[in-house]
Amino acid sequence: MEEEELCPCRPLLDRLGDRWSALTLSLLGEGPAYFGELERRMSPVSRKVLTQTLRGLERDGLVLRTVEQSPVVRVSYALSELGASLTGPLLAIRRWTDRHQPSVDAARSAYDAARPSPGVTALRERAAAGRATSVA
């Protein structure tokens, strides 16, 4: 059975959880922006990745793209009504992160400082080495 059949919301959750989409939506939540402005504010995102992110968000109906015809063609992006409905949930995640970042940092430090238990691969290699030694 296909993953999308098991969880039809998975592609959208993948989009919202990727590295750049939430940041893009948050910035556009402050108001429309031109591509170059988004690129500067989202550094070190590459032009290619930002383009892919914006296209995906536009495809999902979260972002509107407007081409402005003037002596220099400019493209601006804004949240659609659907995209704007994500502003609250994204803000809640940001507030949670701001409030709990010290606890997450402490947990990471404790985890990194503890002697990590060997992974499954290491355990299998040890077991195989033990069997090879006992056979010889």
UniProtKB/TrEMBL annotation:
SUPFAM superfamilies cross-referenced by the UniProt entry:
Winged helix' DNA-binding domain
The answer on whether this UniProt entry bears the keyword Transcription reads: yes
Provide the HTH hxlR-type domain boundaries: 7-105
What InterPro entries does the record tag this protein with?
Answer: HTH_HxlR (IPR002577), WH-like_DNA-bd_sf (IPR036388), WH_DNA-bd_sf (IPR036390)
Q: Report the Pfam families cross-referenced here.
A: HxlR
**Keyword field:** DNA-binding, Transcription, Transcription regulation
Its domain of life reads Bacteria
Single GO molecular function: DNA binding
PANTHER family tied to this protein: HTH-TYPE TRANSCRIPTIONAL REGULATOR YODB (PTHR33204:SF37), TRANSCRIPTIONAL REGULATOR, MARR FAMILY (PTHR33204)
Q: What is this protein called?
A: DNA-binding HxlR family transcriptional regulator
**Species, as recorded:** Streptomyces olivoverticillatus
